[in-house]
Amino acid sequence: MSAPGSALPAPSVGVIGGGFWGVALALAASRTGAEVLLYSRREQPQLRGGPRIVRDHAEVARARLLVIAVPSNAARTALRALGDHMDGSHLVIHGVRGLEGEALKTVSDLVREETPARRVGALGGPVQEDELREGRPSAMVCGSRFPEVHAAVTAAFQSDALHVYTTPDLQGLEWASALVGCLAIGVGFAEQAGAGPGLLAALISRAVDSAARIAAAAGAEERTMLGLGGYGDLLASIRLEGRPEVVLGKALARGRTLDEAVAEARLRVEAIPLIPRVVAFAKARRVDAGVFEALETTLKGGAPRAVLDRMFAA
Amino acid sequence: MDSRAPIFGFNDARDEIVRTVVDRVVGSTRDPLLAMNEAAYQEAKRLEGSRKPQDIRELAEWQRLARSLGRMHDGERRRRLRELSEEYAWDIAGNFDRRVYQLSSRLLPPVVSALLAPRKLMTVVRDPLKLVSLELLADRVLVEGPLAKLRSLVQRGTAVYVPTHLSNMDSIVFGYALERAGLPPATYGAGKNLFTNPVLSFFMHNLGAYRVDRRIRHNLYKDVLKTYSGVLLERGYHSLFFPGGTRSRSGGVERKLKLGLVGSAFEAYTRTLQSGRERRVFFVPATINYLITLEAETLIADFLSEAGKGRFIIEDDESSRIGRIASFLRKLLAMNAAVVIRFSEPLDPFGNRVDELGRSFDARGREVDPASYVKDLAGKAVIDAARDAQYARELGEEICRAYARDTVVMATHVVAAASFARLRSQAPAADLFTVLRQRDVITVPRDDLAADVVALCDRLRALEQRGCIVLGEDVRLGSGGDIVERAMRAFAGYHSSPVLDSRPDGIALCDTNLLFYYQNRLAAHGVAWDVIAPPGVPSGLQVQPPLPPLEPASSPPPLEEPRGSASSSSSASSRAGEADAHVGSMNGAGGGQ
């Protein structure tokens, strides 16, 4: 581990959200020696000895680095409550995949709207929850315009088992994470529909390219989608049989209705409401979004074969 | 007006200010060799080819310096660096003369009256009121915005005014607006080219303006300049910057800012914290709106000429011609509300709103201590250039939003937008230059144009209701016909060729360039053709409505009461946030467990 911070007291990290992802992040941080507080409404008996569970926003906000790990539809409420106990000295990062509302606001936009914090960032990249939890080697990306945030996140999370890459393109990383969530449905769908490795690779590459243009229309840098936070993240979905988006895509390819597919995926898939909004956004900005249009058709129960053709043609 | 503002003691403090600036610049220059080499290189490049004896002399000096730098030992380099910095700092430093200020503050710039009739300058000095009636002027130039709050804030901290920039008249007009609003004068950097006119220069020099030589491009000079403006802020001098960097060539409201000087406020504020004498800084965006713009013709021509886009300094525009200024002022003095200066809600450097007591509030209306934004892990206020550059960038975005909301729409803008839409409808798929080529081709029946104007006004009114724009009186109260009439009267007789011309069969759209210029004022709001969005800014960006107003400050501020109510709502909302029971959709949230 890096030396410069070692003279200082262990950084104190507050994680908000007691779901799989929040717990995994809390564990990863406590593995580096950080003092970690986990705000969770649930009992977390498995955490004995590691992160300390707290039930009060005021208490978790004692940590200077706050990590938001709640679903995107709960982010605004969680941030508003947390904001009552914050000031400008907090660094706030989030690992939330999703864009809010018709305006497609990023979660870091919400942080600025709901809290006094300005030094914000996001986590992304291919790292998986189980890798984090078990300390198996992996890589993640921290996006922030503030070097201080990069430094704090690296200090809190980087270990022999986890490499933290940084990018200043916060918005690009947030868009990449959200769009990859959509595209992973397509990957699952194509795999189930019998696409071979070549076709799959073609689909992924074209999809990433299209997503990069859409993100750029929102003000992000194209190359962020093409990097670890976009392409890298999407590649991880190929082998992830259990990823909810992939499960959903596969169920759709087997001819299930959307509701059945959602039930099969068992977890909320944020990409479902996001896909039509991305299509509308791209249309308004006159960017080609063929892949996302095809995904929209898929969600509406379009014929698998025709959909695959459409995706490939896009 | 508060004559205790630090600028009234500027001349006594000047030596000390210059010394501080030089010490800081020299102290922060890590490699004097590099700094001076770069300076010499840039200066040689600039001066080469000039035939002016002064330039030739300077060039020789720089070349001599460049040659000898390599042989100098470190102490000598530092000494030379200090000398250079000192030279620059003195060149930049301004002057402030209370008598000149009192004189000039009596009228819309005496400079202007002097320019109207230079021979009358002495009359003006003896009796300023003779030339222009102040009451008359009060109707011509409107000053709007949260003036009482600003008057309270300037007692409590340092104001940084950051208005839009259209014209060389702006600094003069803005100085007048400050006076009218009962606000103390502000110091500002003015292009050195403005100091060449002896009359203008006399006033500029004595009104606290400092000189910015925009021809000098090297970092040492920029360092000195930035440090200078920072030291002024730190010492509590209210300052004026035009963050657009240069006059808007297109006529549009700025959507991207140059933040170099604005950025010096962060360091200045942090230094006051470090010295234990916190002095808060308040940014005050403002729009300066003209019925007609003095330099419109030159600016739009420059915008449209490919070559002109790189031209940063224009020295030969209307503002350098006394005849044009005189006819501009005659026009201005003949029309009500011809200039509107509108102050926006003040912000702290971190984009938070502030109340009249100078306290900062976040977007949710919670009080926040601005010092917390510059504190490090250990809770100490630290200067961090990389961090502050980001704060500055975000502040810049916030300032641009304020510009859009406080843009005042006048008759000329609406009529130009309606006319330009007509031009476009003739060639719907055409590019800008094809549209512009239709000079004096189209004549629109009066009633039709008036109807277009009415339709446009309805859209603008809807925007205004959401707080996204402000309608000028003429646009708010006038009928379609009135508005067209007023715009035509404003254009007529000032611009060198007719913009709109009254013909028997209607109104001829003549000067398409100027119609484009005036319609651009509304481009950011989506009510006019937006081909001027700067790179990286999506065109037709939705203007965001303002946040709900802060509760009026009740002094003394309430004690712990709001906290209590806040925490009760927080527990309610976290119950609503129970959704974390099924995460899964977050990053990499491993599925399938």
Task: Provide a descriptive summary of the structure in words.
The complex is a heterodimer of chains A (314) and B (593). Chain A has helices spanning 20-31, 57-60, 72-83, 107-114, 129-134, 147-157, 170-192, 197-217, 222-225, 228-239, 244-253, 258-265, 271-284, 290-299, 304-313, and strands spanning 12-16, 35-39, 52-54, 65-68, 91-94, 119-124, 138-143, 162-167. With 314 residues, chain A is an alpha/beta fold. Chain A starts with 11 loop residues before the first strand and ends with a helix. With 593 residues, chain B is α/β, with parallel strands linked by helices. Helix content of chain B is 48%, strand content 10%. Chain B is built from 23 helices and 15 strands. Chain B has a seven-stranded mixed beta sheet, with helices on both faces. In chain B, strands 8-9-10 form a three-stranded antiparallel beta sheet, with no helix packed on it. In chain B, a hairpin with a 5-residue loop joins strand 9 and strand 10. In chain B, helix 1 (10-28) packs antiparallel against helix 4 and helix 2 packs antiparallel against helix 3 (53-69). The longest helix of chain B has 21 residues, at 385-405. The radius of gyration of chain B is 26 Å and the shape is globular. The model of chain B is unreliable at 107-111, 113-125 and 556-593 (pLDDT under 50). At the A-B interface, helix 1, helix 3, helix 4, strand 6 and helix 5 of A face helix 16 and helix 23 of B. Chain B: It is found in: Endomembrane system. Chain B: Residues 159-291 form the Phospholipid/glycerol acyltransferase domain. Chain B: Pfam families: Acyltransferase. Chain B: It catalyses: sn-glycerol 3-phosphate + an acyl-CoA = a 1-acyl-sn-glycero-3-phosphate + CoA. Chain B: It is an enzyme of class 2 (transferase). Chain A: This is Glycerol-3-phosphate dehydrogenase.
